[in-house]
Design goal:
mainly beta; about 0% helix; globular; four-stranded antiparallel sheet
């Protein structure tokens, strides 16, 4: 499932004011700090987004300055499709590029990929370019140009390709590179690459891409893929596969179909239309477990044809890493027809339950709900209730789950229903228009089914919490997430009226249009804040603080710069010294917060939106905080190619 955020005219490019604290003449002694790498996308194989690096503290973070910047030049503007994707969508337009990457740092080298899958190796101290690899993809073959990261595998030996960088590409290749030189590992697959589109039903290349870094477990490299949303019921399979990291040979394949159901098409291809895994996979090396955050069975907003084929949709799935055997699965949404797929990397952490330390997997969701499950069994650590949900308003041919799961211990972060009291507008006429809109839409709270009349869903399909969250402190169990708080509109359109609609949902009676609940002025119809940073004590089940993230400076004429809390897509990272760093796609700023109070302590100006997860590392005697600033196709920030590293000033 693809994360696309539709913000109408709210999504204009803008820069936030930056209240920089000037560095004094002398900072005094900078703490020595703890040398720390960032060897995986989420800092750890279990996605904690947490670092033991502690040179940068709440006391000195205000003095951060730009240490170095790297630019790849890989930028694509939105516009008419000139390449092989031309004609694939009715509208014929292609999105801008989006630099959503979180680099990794192993030893003294930093590795990252661009939206066109070029891989760069940099000196982690200086940002000096060491090598670059170009897989030579078609820059205009994919509608959503994006690469969230690469992965690292080390054998423990010295020599060529004993340390490998693994890259998944937009044209569905898995490539192994020598970390020292950037040259292909020729013994991996066919001259260093494996074609993961092998075994798929016939499809357009834009329908099947690898956009997230593969997981590494032992000598297995494990990957899913993005399958383009809402195009047809028989889209490419969502099969998950593990390949040998040395040879590229297929080790196992897991088919996301109901037990006993067929796994292959008549022609021998992997079964079409099954749920996929587009987001980040976690692994537990000690327990030989792989944790999958699954999408929902295509298309997103109509499921009358599924008849149980979404058995593993919108779930956390645990597999045996060595064999691909199913261990357990837990479904966060039954028969998902809201695009409420599981967007974020499952986070592995130990939690305290009734005085005992329990190995957990924590899963945040687009609904703003957080599920905490036993890592070995999938059983909820605290009660999850099956509660009745709306059963009226669905289109003919659709069926609904009578109940949905609701966690009871960890607080929900999004209100499920929009009322007249929630309506807001910049001017009175705007507010009246929003109040009128509420009466026009089906609006029964969580899980109101999509309709031809239009359904108001709170939250929208972007969340709640999305792929950039969470960060969890492994000692305290404090979790920080970014939360979108803007409702969305879903409207199903009868098939005979679907000409020119981009999300066709072929094979169903309808196509679909989705968007935010916006006023005639192009701003959300609900009261701000529209996006917040939230801290939760998972063990206690308590919200510690919630603060707005972002402002409307330069979004509107003076003096309308005072609105705080913007919607968007971004990520969070936490350090052992008590800091949380956050970027957000609609704000050209990286910010630091006190994890204890939520107080903002620093902000750094960026050239465009930071639609990525920040990361940190310390190589030698200097800690760096790094963010990719490259905008987003739906967030209103222009495309960019900026890898920016901040550090305390050197004497």
């Amino acid at each position: 499932m693809v994360n696309r955020y539709y913000l109408s005219t709210l999504a204009l490019a803008f820069l936030l004011s930056v209240a920089c604290t000037p560095a004094p003449e002398r900072l005094g002694e900078i703490p020595l700090g703890v040398p720390s790498e960032w060897p995986a996308y989420g800092a750890t194989a279990g996605g904690s987004h947490f670092s033991r690096a502690n040179q940068i503290t709440p006391e000195n973070v205000a003095h951060l300055e730009l240490a170095w910047e790297h630019r790849s030049g890989d930028i694509r503007e939105a516009g008419k499709i000139p390449g092989s994707a031309q004609g694939f969508l009715p509208q014929g337009y292609i999105s801008q590029s989006s630099l959503q990457v979180t680099p990794i740092v192993v030893e003294d080298r930093l590795y990252y990929c661009t939206p066109f899958n070029r891989v760069f190796a940099l000196d982690a101290n200086s940002g000096e370019e060491l090598w670059v690899f170009d897989p030579e993809i078609d820059h205009y073959a994919d509608l959503l140009s994006n690469c969230r990261g690469v992965s690292s595998w080390q054998s423990g030996k010295q020599g060529f390709c004993e340390h490998r960088i693994l890259l998944g590409t937009l044209d569905a290749r898995l490539i192994a590179l020598d970390a020292a030189t950037g040259r292909r590992c020729e013994d991996f697959g066919d001259t260093g690459e494996v074609d993961t589109s092998h075994g798929m039903v016939e499809h357009h290349p834009a329908e099947y891409s690898i956009t997230s870094p593969p997981a590494i477990l032992g000598e297995n490299v494990i990957t899913g893929a993005l399958v383009l949303d809402n195009q047809r019921t028989d889209s490419p399979s969502g099969v998950i596969r593990a390949y040998n990291v040395r040879t590229g040979e297929l080790v196992w394949a897991w088919h996301p179909v109901a037990p006993g159901d067929r796994t292959l098409e008549a022609g021998g291809e992997f079964r079409a239309g099954t749920t996929n895994v587009w987001s980040i996979i976690s692994v537990d090396e000690e327990r030989d477990l792989v944790f999958l955050p699954t999408g929902n069975t295509t298309p997103d907003y109509y499921g009358g044809h599924r008849q149980g084929s979404d058995y593993y949709s919108s779930s956390v799935v645990a597999l045996r890493g060595s064999t691909g055997e199913l261990v357990w699965h837990f479904q966060t949404v039954h028969h998902d027809i809201w695009d409420y797929d599981v967007p974020a990397q499952p986070t592995l952490v130990d939690l305290q339950v009734d005085g005992e330390t329990v190995p957990a997997v924590v899963q945040v969701t687009k609904m703003g709900m957080t599920f905490a499950l036993h890592r070995e069994t999938g059983e909820p650590l605290w009660p999850v209730e099956e509660r009745p949900v709306p059963q009226t308003g669905a289109v003919v041919g659709e069926y609904l789950s009578p109940t949905q799961p609701f966690p009871t211990h960890i607080p929900h972060l999004v209100d499920p229903i929009v009322t007249a009291d929630d309506v807001w507008g910049m001017v009175l006429v705007d507010q009246w228009a929003c109040a009128k809109k509420i009466a026009e839409y089906n609006n029964l709270g969580w899980y109101t089914p999509p309709s031809v009349e239009g359904t108001l869903n709170s939250p929208a399909n972007a969340g709640g919490n999305n792929w950039g969250s969470p960060a969890i402190h492994p000692d305290s169990g404090v979790m920080v997430v970014y939360t979108n708080r803007v409702p969305g509109i879903t409207r199903l359109i009868p098939r005979q009226q679907c000409e020119g609609v981009s999300q066709q949902m072929k094979g169903t009676p309808h196509c679909v249009q989705v968007g935010m609940f916006m006023s005639p002025l192009g701003i959300p119809c609900t009261k701000p804040p529209w996006g917040t940073l939230d801290a939760i004590d998972l063990n206690a089940g308590k919200v510690l603080w919630s603060v707005p993230l972002g402002t409307t400076r330069n979004l509107a004429p003076f003096p309308v710069w005072w609105i705080k809390g913007l919607p968007g897509l971004g990520g969070v990272m936490m350090t052992d010294s008590g800091l949380v760093f956050a970027g957000i796609s609609n704000s050209h700023t990286l910010r630091a917060f006190d994890v204890k109070t939520g107080a903002q302590l620093w902000e750094g100006k960026l050239p465009t939106g930071a639609n990525a997860v920040p990361m940190t590392y310390q190589v030698g005697d200097r800690q760096y905080v790094l963010i990719a600033a490259g905008g987003h196709w739906g967030g209103g920030s222009p495309p960019g190619d900026h890898i920016m590293a901040f550090a305390l000033p050197v004497k």
